[in-house]
Amino acid sequence: MSVWTIILAAGQGSRLAQAGLDTKKQFLHHEGAPLYWKSVRTLASVPAIKGFVFVFPPEELDACTKDVESLSSTDDLSMPCLCVAGGARRQDSVFSGLQALPKACSKVLVHDSARPFASAKLAQALISALEHGAEAAIPGLPVTDTIKVIDQDDTVTQTLNRSELRAVQTPQAFDTAALIRAHLACEKKQLSVTDDASMIEATGGTVRIVPGEAGNIKITTPEDLSMLNAQAPQTMLPCVGWGYDVHRYGAGRPFRLGGIPVDTDIEVIAHSDGDVLLHALADALLGCLGLGDIGKHFPDTDAKFEGIESSILVNEVLQEVEKKALTITHVDLTVIAQRPKLASYRERIQKNVANLLRIDKSHVNFKATTEEKLGFTGAKKGIKAVACVSAMYPANQQA
Fold first, then answer.
1. Domain 236-394 is classified in which CATH homologous superfamily?
2. Does the annotation flag 211 for ligand binding?
3. How far apart are CA 367 and CA 350, in angstroms?
4. Does the annotation list 295 as a binding residue?
5. Within the chain, which residue ranges are assigned CATH 3.90.550.10?
6. DSSP letter at 135?
7. Helix, strand, coil proportions of the chain in percent (round to 5)?
8. Which residues neighbour 374 within 8 Å (Cβ) at sequence distance 6 or greater?
9. Is 372 annotated to bind ligand?
10. Which of 4, 141, 148, 235 is the least crowded, having the fewest Cβ atoms under 10 Å away?
């Protein structure tokens, strides 16, 4: 499944402009980059997402395209980024982004740049809903206030049942072809909508709700800007996790290491994709969490893990890392094998693991060594890997 993300950054920010803010909210500087880039840093860590389309104000397209190129290079993003001009309405901007998607893109996330706090976990939940057959999936939160319907005289005409209501957010996830058809149908009927899910609804499609996130706030008013301010520092304590894994050589899975295919005729016997390095990394992360090992969470007796990408397993563990508010500070990885030679893959593996963990690549160290022809690795019968993860966790909770 090829998933791309459309980042909507073409708005004019009229409410903030009226309050005297000269800079459009999507371009506010935050964490060393424009606000829209925060979502990119988060979503780029989701394994299924393969690229981004940015929709900018037409008059700023050239300057923003250069900014994206610079940011992508600085962050070593390693995935395509396309930039297009937006339209007069939100739906026009989305359609412009849809037209720029590659033909291979089967699913798409549409995300507002003014929601910089959406998590990778939320994006993964939306993509999972599509994988299980949903045509469209959107995040929604239960409504806690009582909602009244009023007439033109401000007289209440109805009280809605709030148990049936949800406040929806972005990103929203869609089957690409279905969303394009919905846009074309709404354009033909001259319908204006406030979100893309409304288009699916208006054309008879089905939209599934997944749990939204209370922290996924949209920056709309001057008061919301306080959300961007750094929070008071919290006392953090260190923890260390250690991971170890072994795989035998033999007819089975193509050779992958750290999520990177390796050009060799060697194959690995494994239930999943056989990525020994990511398995050791997952074990080390679980060690930081005190949650056992990879076999406990992803047993090789479970058919649903047959051939699964190890990056997906790591991402599942990272959701637990996020729940416990762990901050990964450094990762040290070692592969022990007589063959194949891995020196030329060092940079790619380092960068891919850093992207997967959402940390800077300077905090990922990768080494490859041999055991001087001793033991099963020296006899070229298999490969093993060890991983050490250093992390910090809030002092008010256990690691």
1. 2-C-methyl-D-erythritol 2,4-cyclodiphosphate synthase (3.30.1330.50)
2. no
3. 10
4. yes
5. 3-228
6. S
7. 35, 30, 35
8. none
9. yes
10. 235
Record the tokens describing residue 281, joined without a space: 């990394």
Q: Does the annotation list 271 as a binding residue?
A: yes
SS3 127: helix
What does the pLDDT profile of the chain (399 residues) look like in tens digits?
A: 789 999 999 976 555 555 455 567 777 877 788 989 999 999 998 889 999 999 999 999 999 999 999 999 998 888 999 999 999 999 999 999 999 999 999 999 999 998 999 999 899 999 999 999 999 999 999 998 999 999 999 999 999 999 999 999 999 999 999 999 999 999 999 988 889 999 999 989 999 999 999 889 888 766 666 666 644 445 678 999 999 999 999 998 999 999 999 999 999 998 888 999 999 999 999 999 999 998 899 888 888 888 898 999 999 999 899 888 889 999 999 999 999 999 999 999 999 999 899 888 889 999 999 999 999 988 999 999 999 999 998 765 544
Tokens of 256: 């992958």
* SS3 annotation, 40-108: HHHHCCCCCEEEEEEEECHHHHHHHHHHHHHHHHHCCCCCCEEEEECCCCHHHHHHHHHHHCCCCCCEE
Whether 371 has a binding-site annotation, put simply, is: yes
Secondary structure (3-state) at 223? helix
The answer on whether 299 is annotated among ligand-binding residues is yes
Q: Is 294 annotated as ligand-binding?
A: yes
Is 246 marked as a binding-site residue? Answer: yes
Domain with CATH 3.30.1330.50 in the chain: 236-394
Q: What fold does the segment set 3-228 form as a domain?
A: Spore Coat Polysaccharide Biosynthesis Protein SpsA; Chain A (3.90.550)
Supply the DSSP symbol for 31. Answer: T
Using CA atoms, how far apart are residues 137 and 131, in angstroms rounded to an integer? 10
